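R.M. (postdoc): so does anyone remember the format we settled on? I'll just put the structure tokens first.
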């Protein structure tokens, strides 16, 4: 059999809370402006419109509890998000069947080089330079849906150095988790190992080295990340 000409990259995998098992990550889909108040603070219409998604890379996810301040930016923002992990995929998934594809949930931070994202927006260019940089998605251990069910309401909150910056409720999502899964499956073939980051409440703001971010989602857990 033919071999690889270079060593294949390692599979990035999320820890599972309370076990030694791992969840291998295939793709990372992120929905934009999925909380009305956040849409408003970013200067957009909060009314329900067709959702849009961008992607981070699987190896952007980091489980170390540290976020190294990235290069080429002076304005890095935090965005707390509920994370959805899929155990199976498909195409044209019905909304009523979508939650059957969910393995579990977690907490993630969509760290954003906001200044670089703003330049890309102004020039009509893709957002990857602002969104998909190294270690731009700090994430905690996943929790199986078999243990916590499928949370659809509950507080979503982020504190920086003990002070609340972001607060909202999962029931404020414009597009709910089953709708996101169904919509994505109309455009992509979803598969086991896919991750969906479900949007962020209002209150996004800058961090600097030395800050400590504490992200919590009711019923899912707490994630603490230090900016280094």
């Amino acid at each position: 059999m033919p071999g690889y000409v270079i060593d294949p990259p390692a599979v990035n995998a999320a820890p599972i809370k309370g076990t030694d098992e791992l969840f291998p990550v295939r793709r990372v889909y992120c929905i934009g402006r999925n909380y009305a108040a956040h849409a408003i603070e970013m200067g957009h219409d909060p009314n329900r419109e067709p959702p849009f998604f961008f992607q981070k890379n699987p190896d952007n996810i980091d489980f170390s509890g540290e976020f190294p301040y990235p290069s080429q930016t002076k304005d890095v923002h935090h965005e707390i998000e509920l994370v959805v992990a899929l155990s199976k995929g498909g195409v044209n998934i019905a909304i009523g069947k979508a939650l059957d594809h969910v393995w579990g949930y977690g907490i993630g931070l969509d760290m954003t080089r906001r200044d670089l994202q703003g330049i890309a927006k102004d020039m009509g260019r893709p957002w990857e330079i602002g969104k998909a940089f190294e270690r731009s998605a700090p994430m905690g251990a996943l929790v199986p849906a078999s243990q916590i069910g499928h949370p659809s309401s509950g507080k979503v909150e982020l504190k920086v150095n003990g002070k609340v910056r972001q607060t909202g409720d999962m029931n404020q999502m414009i597009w709910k988790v089953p709708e996101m899964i169904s919509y994505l499956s109309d455009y992509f073939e979803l598969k086991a190992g896919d991750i969906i980051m479900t949007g962020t409440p209002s209150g996004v703001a800058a961090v600097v080295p030395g800050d400590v971010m504490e992200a919590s989602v009711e019923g899912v857990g707490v994630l603490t990340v230090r900016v280094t």
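R.M.: ...and that's the designed sequence above, right after the tokens. Also worth knowing: The first strand starts at residue 13 and ends at 15. The chain has five helices and 18 strands.
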